[in-house]
Design a protein that fits this description.
Blueprint lengths: L16 H12 L3 H10 L4 H7 L11 E9 L2 E8 L3 H15 L5 E4 L3 E9 L3 H10 L1 H9 L3 H5 L3 E11 L5 E10 L6 H19 L2 E7 L7 E8 L11 H17 L1 H21 L4 H12 L9 E5 L5 E8 L7 H5 L1 H9 L5 H23 L5 H14 L15
Antiparallel strand pairs: 1-2, 3-8, 4-6, 4-7, 5-6, 8-10, 9-10
Helix pairs in contact: 4-14, 6-8, 9-10, 9-14, 10-11, 10-14
Amino acid sequence: MADEMSSRVPGFHNLTVEQRRRLLAAWLESDEAEVAGLLDSGGLRLEVADRLSENVLGRYSLPFSVASNFQVNGEDVFIPMVCEEPSVVAAASNAARLARAGGGFRVEVGDSLMTCQLQLFCSDCRQARSRLENERQRLLEIANRVDPTLVSLGGGAVDLQVRQLQAEEGEAFLVLHLLVDVLDAMGANAVNSMGEALAPEIERVSGGRVGLVILTNRLDHRQAEARVNIPAAALAFGDYSGERVRDGIVAASRFAEADPYRAATHNKGILNGVGALALATGNDWRALEAAAHAHAARDGRYRPLATWRTDRQGRLAGVLRLPLPLGCVGGATGAHPTARLALRIMKCSTARRLAALAAACGLASNLAALRALSTEGIQRGHMRLHRRALAAAGHPGDRKDARCQSR
């Protein structure tokens, strides 16, 4: 049944929780009681929570939602999102609906390469660098002994690069970059384990002393690119013509391109969507944000991760490029039943697919924010939903807005 279903469900927000769960169970071709059981409990038993973290007292709940209307690389999909802010889910769903008029989002994803840095202090950096480069292949073989399973699946250490740096006040030192194909894992543990195992042999070959050994969240190789082209007519609403909305979004994009103060908030809107999906799937949203902001400042000036223009057909054309260190195996993703449910909802068994969906969600979130900012303002829809949330929590004076609905 799921193959025949569409993520375009008009009025999805107006359904009851039970009706949404019933639809989700049909999407998953699963038992309604199984889905409800996971979502009611949060899926995390206390004894599992105690192993996942330290000094555990209990579990902390946040809403588990799905954004509807998404079409990515020609395929309909619901996007799971865990977020306390209702406008994030509503905005992503609405933007995905607009994107369908242009065929949805198209996403390409690069290699799953993560980098471990090894800092090396040595008396003669030139000589040490030469020795290390001569031993590159053997050093890679040593690193790959750490994780034979990863290597057997086609991943593992693929390159060792050597750079020389000079501290502002201090001696010169070398930095080695161990590049590891982590396949469908986020990869932090794999690359750090390889780096630490390699450190003694690095010291022996170079005659130097290894300092820090740790992955970098500045990712040159693990990136995704999402694109969308939306006919101007699809952007129209109320008193706003499609051309006016389109031109307002382009102007807002140029503002972010010219001003790092605006770019920071522009990018935060992108990460609203990416982070909510990461949390739903048990991924490290902190690493995602560090990688995104480092990429935004890669040339020394902080820039927007997504830009918008008018294409030759008069459509609104958006493109987003950002690093996405996401995994669908290992860590909390493997231990948390609701995270595994989120992956099932997206029919996601590879990190490449997960990154593609996250990029689409980020671009949708950015589109929604710029559309609101360039027309009626961000607060109108945001505060309507905010008041509804307050009313649900029992705050006095807010119940009159409790039935306000998102789009």
